[in-house]
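Students often ask why inverse folding is considered easier than folding. One informal answer: many sequences map to the same fold, so there is more than one right answer. In these notes we will look at a single instance of the problem. The structure comes first.
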């Protein structure tokens, strides 16, 4: 029932402007969780950015105009209770033209790809700067691989290639007062790194500390969270991983020549502000190309005469057993609808297609997964097809239940002839 109510609350929210409203949220209690854990759960499904926690108070921005009653109902769905909620600025009718901060560190810009499958290569130990504006087309963290993290907010993925053995240290320095989190998986080899991106198990180093400023791996690290309320030393004082009560630092990695690691750097604050990364320790880094088992050049979908036609193309294939095609009507819950045999090994362009007919009147999502003969899998970016275009609007009401016309400004609930209901902001 909770998930159903949450879906009704969020269903169909659309934004017609780039303006941002700023809010302050304070809870009566955190039910034994850290403030970061509680606020993360509450804001996960909302369209928020610039998320900051100070003295157990959350401030954030959103293009949505949210009333205190709506926020109270939403927070209650997650098992919490509001103590205070304020609209700090209301820019509903204005456009936010604030320029993004620029990086003045002088470091080379090396943006990590927002999806792991196309992670950026780190070829040497030179300092660099990076930034991300979202979590990519795939949400690649889950219960089996996330470790101390929750999910991706503004993510940057990197391949770290070890050129000489030693210890590997790292400092991530936000250029503004932002909360950056990160995790490292491995070790892998040149041949196995791609098959483990996104990772299939937990990270070897992980930091999800609550707070702002520098974070990373450094020698002599101790995790002070055992002296904080809600921290249990047998679980939370691991020098290799830390929860929200940590201090931002974990132990260095002991690495060997030719190992490959996967690094995710995530901006929890979702502020679009960049970071600077500096390497330390005795290990050396070099560039080792991580080959792709299948080079996908296109994956498209369109509605044709009552069916959704999916097409995709590969330029090369290596040990490709088959493709699995999954469908979702919400982008979260997936069901496999068919399998299509691959070409095995090929250096020629190959074209594939699939017809899907039994789909709901909604925005339908499709996920393509390539599977090797040995069972290794690669998930490609998700596509969507809008199958709502032929619906007829029956009525439009405001949050008080009063019927309104298309000129109404604010939050409205729309009812359609296919029995769907959507909440929109105009």
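Output (designed amino acids):
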């Amino acid at each position: 029932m909770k998930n159903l109510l949450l879906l009704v609350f969020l269903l169909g929210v659309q934004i017609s402007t780039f303006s941002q409203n700023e809010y302050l949220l304070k809870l009566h209690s955190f039910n034994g969780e850290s403030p970061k854990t509680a606020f993360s759960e509450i804001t996960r499904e909302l369209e928020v950015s610039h998320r900051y926690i100070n003295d157990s108070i959350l401030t954030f921005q959103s293009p949505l105009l949210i009333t205190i009653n709506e926020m109270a109902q939403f927070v209650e769905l997650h098992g919490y209770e509001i103590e205070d909620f304020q609209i700090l600025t209301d820019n509903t009718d204005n456009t936010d033209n604030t320029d993004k901060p620029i990086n003045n560190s002088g470091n080379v810009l090396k943006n990590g790809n927002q999806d792991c499958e196309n992670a950026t290569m780190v070829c040497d130990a030179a300092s660099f700067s990076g930034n991300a504006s979202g979590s990519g087309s795939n949400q690649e963290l889950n219960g089996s691989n996330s470790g101390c993290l929750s999910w991706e907010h503004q993510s940057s993925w990197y391949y770290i290639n070890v050129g000489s053995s030693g210890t590997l240290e790292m400092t991530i320095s936000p250029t503004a007062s932002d909360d950056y989190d990160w995790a490292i998986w491995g070790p892998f080899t040149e041949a196995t790194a791609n098959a483990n991106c996104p990772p299939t198990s937990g990270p070897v180093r992980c930091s999800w500390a609550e707070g702002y400023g520098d974070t990373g791996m450094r020698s002599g690290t101790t995790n002070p969270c055992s002296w904080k309320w809600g921290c249990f030393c047998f679980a939370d004082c691991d020098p290799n991983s830390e929860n929200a009560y940590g201090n931002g630092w974990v132990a260095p990695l002991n690495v060997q020549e030719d190992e490959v690691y996967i690094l995710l750097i995530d901006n929890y604050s979702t502020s679009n502000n960049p970071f600077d990364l500096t390497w330390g320790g005795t290990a050396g880094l070099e560039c080792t190309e991580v080959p792709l088992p299948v080079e996908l050049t296109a994956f498209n979908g369109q509605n044709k005469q009552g069916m959704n036609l999916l097409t995709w193309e590969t330029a090369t294939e290596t040990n490709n057993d088959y493709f699995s095609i999954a469908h979702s009507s919400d982008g979260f819950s997936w069901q496999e609808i068919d399998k299509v045999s691959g070409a095995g090994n090929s250096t020629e362009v190959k074209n594939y297609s699939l017809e899907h007919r039994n789909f709901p009147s909604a925005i339908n999502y499709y996920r393509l997964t390539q599977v090797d003969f040995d069972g290794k899998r690669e998930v490609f970016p998700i596509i969507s097809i809008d199958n709502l275009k032929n619906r007829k609007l029956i009525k439009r009401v405001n949050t008080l239940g009063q019927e309104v016309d298309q000129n109404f400004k604010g939050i409205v609930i729309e009812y359609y002839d296919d029995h769907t209901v959507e909440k929109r902001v105009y």
